[in-house]
């Protein structure tokens, strides 16, 4: 067996394992969302997937580890999505902020149940795991605050407290997960457009910065570069 063949087989095994873990997360998230963490058993998750409980143990040591993996999904996805946006030195701060909001809201729409489960069930996480997720969320706010500072330096934004404003912006976006309903009165496009206006208002964006971003350059169907995990 050549090294190339061995590597290809190893990659395939990882892809298959990742797919199985993703399916377990998705079905567990549905049940945690509908019935609560404490009201859901591993037997119920296995039944939902039409697999045995030992199959679940092959990928997750216990229900608590599965909850942790679900709870960290939204923030890890968000951090991965915003880094290339923030690193784009050719774009204005206003443009990057607009793209950041679009990318994060796309994740919130796609992983709504994961995010709601985290908000509801954080109390059931191990303390170290809960602290790790909070640190990731703080890192997200820090990155947004740095962007706001850059926008203030370039006279695109007027913010008095960049950290507090970043926390406010993060809260605006997270709140969407708690009330959004697919097929509801507001479309995703309308929600993103409205949220963008609120975010730019919170950032004290000047008229030119807002006119460069709005109306929203968003296509239905998600934001390019946001992957499933």
Could you explain the architecture of this structure?
It is a single chain. The protein has helices at 3-35, 42-49, 53-59, 63-86, 93-110, 112-121, 127-153, 162-179, 188-203, 207-213. The protein is mainly α. The chain has two domains: 16-60, Arc Repressor Mutant, subunit A (Orthogonal Bundle); 72-213, Tetracycline Repressor, domain 2 (Orthogonal Bundle). Helix 1 (3-35) crosses helix 6 and helix 8 (162-179) runs antiparallel to helix 9 (188-203). It is elongated. Mean pLDDT is 89; it is low at 216-229.
Helix-strand blueprint:
Layout: H1 3-35, H2 42-49, H3 53-59, H4 63-86, H5 93-110, H6 112-121, H7 127-153, H8 162-179, H9 188-203, H10 207-213
Helix pairs in contact: 1-2, 1-4, 1-6, 4-5, 4-6, 4-7, 5-7, 5-8, 5-9, 7-8, 8-9
Quickly give the structural class: mainly alpha
Structure summary, number of beta strands: 0
Unreliable spans: 216-229
CATH superfamily of the largest domain: Tetracycline Repressor, domain 2
Task: Output the keywords.
229 residues, mainly alpha, Arc Repressor Mutant, subunit A, Tetracycline Repressor, domain 2, 2 domains, disordered C terminus
Quick take:
The chain contains 10 helices and no strands. It is mainly α. It folds into 2 domains: 45 residues, Arc Repressor Mutant, subunit A (Orthogonal Bundle); 142 residues, Orthogonal Bundle (Tetracycline Repressor, domain 2), CATH 1.10.357.10.
């Amino acid at each position: 067996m050549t090294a190339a063949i061995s590597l290809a087989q190893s990659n395939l095994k990882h892809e298959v394992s990742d797919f199985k873990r993703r399916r377990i997360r998705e079905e567990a998230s549905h049940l945690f969302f509908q019935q609560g963490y404490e009201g859901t058993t591993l037997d119920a998750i296995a039944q939902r997937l039409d697999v045995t409980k030992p199959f679940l143990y092959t990928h997750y040591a216990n229900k608590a580890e599965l909850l942790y993996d679900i709870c960290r999904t939204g923030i890890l996805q968000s951090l991965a999505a915003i880094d290339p946006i923030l690193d784009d030195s050719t774009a204005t701060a206003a443009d990057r902020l607009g793209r950041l909001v679009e990318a994060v809201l796309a994740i919130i729409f796609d992983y709504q149940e994961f995010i709601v489960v985290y908000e509801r069930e954080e109390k059931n996480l191990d303390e170290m795991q809960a602290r790790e997720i909070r640190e990731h969320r703080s890192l997200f706010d820090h990155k947004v605050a740095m962007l706001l500072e850059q926008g203030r330096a370039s006279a695109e934004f007027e913010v008095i407290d960049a950290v507090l404003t970043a926390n406010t912006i993060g809260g605006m976006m997270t709140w969407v997960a708690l009330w959004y309903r697919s097929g509801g009165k507001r479309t995703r496009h309308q929600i993103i457009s409205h949220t963008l206006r609120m975010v730019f208002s919170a950032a004290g964006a000047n008229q030119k910065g807002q006119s460069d971003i709005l109306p929203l350059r968003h296509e239905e169907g998600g934001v390019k570069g946001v992957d499933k995990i």
